[in-house]
Amino acid sequence: QVHLVETGGGVVQTGQSLNLSCAESGGIFRFSFNTIGWYRQAPGKREREFVASITQTRNTNYAEFVEGRFTVSRDDAKNTVHLQMNSLKPEDTGIYYCHTIYFHKNTWGQGTQVTVAS
């Protein structure tokens, strides 16, 4: 079973940066063989919204609200995926989740909390 683990969240001020990481704790999953997505769930919202993704060939895709502030990348040597978030805004506050589809099953991490104070 694949266990995704997100780290790197925290409390920052508007305009500051955070670098989130997604790793796999089971040792059986290679990020380089799969498309990895970042999603977030804002306070009081039930749905998670797409933030960014990176494919096996390192093609990246971003939500419009990212506006060039975030960068998704993959470190194959460490088998991790990162989300560098710059120029953070209060509306970026939420729980950030790492996602993939493994054997046709949606697989999520437990999430990491990002809070941007105004």
Structural summary, described in words:
The structure is a single chain. The protein has 118 residues and is an all-beta fold. It has no helices and 11 strands. The chain has strands at 4-7, 10-13, 18-24, 36-41, 49-54, 60-62, 70-75, 80-85, 94-102, 105-108, 112-117. The strands form 2 sheets. Strands 2, 4, 5, 6, 9, 10 and 11 form a 7-stranded mixed β-sheet that branches. Strand 7 (70-75) and strand 8 (80-85) form a beta hairpin. The model has no long low-confidence stretch (mean pLDDT 96).
Describe the structure using short key phrases.
globular; 118 residues; mainly beta; four-stranded antiparallel sheet; seven-stranded mixed sheet; 11 strands
- Provide mean pLDDT, rounded: 96
- Rg is 14 Å
Overall structural class, as computed from helix and strand content, comes to: mainly beta
Total strand count, please?
A: 11
How many DSSP H or I helices? 0
Largest sheet: 7 strands, mixed
Q: How far is it from the N-terminal to the C-terminal residue, by CA?
A: 40 Å
- The low-pLDDT segments are none
Order of helices and strands: EEEEEEEEEEE
CA-based shape: globular
Query: Strand percentage, roughly?
Result: over 45%
Question: How much helix, percentage-wise, in residues?
Answer: under 10%
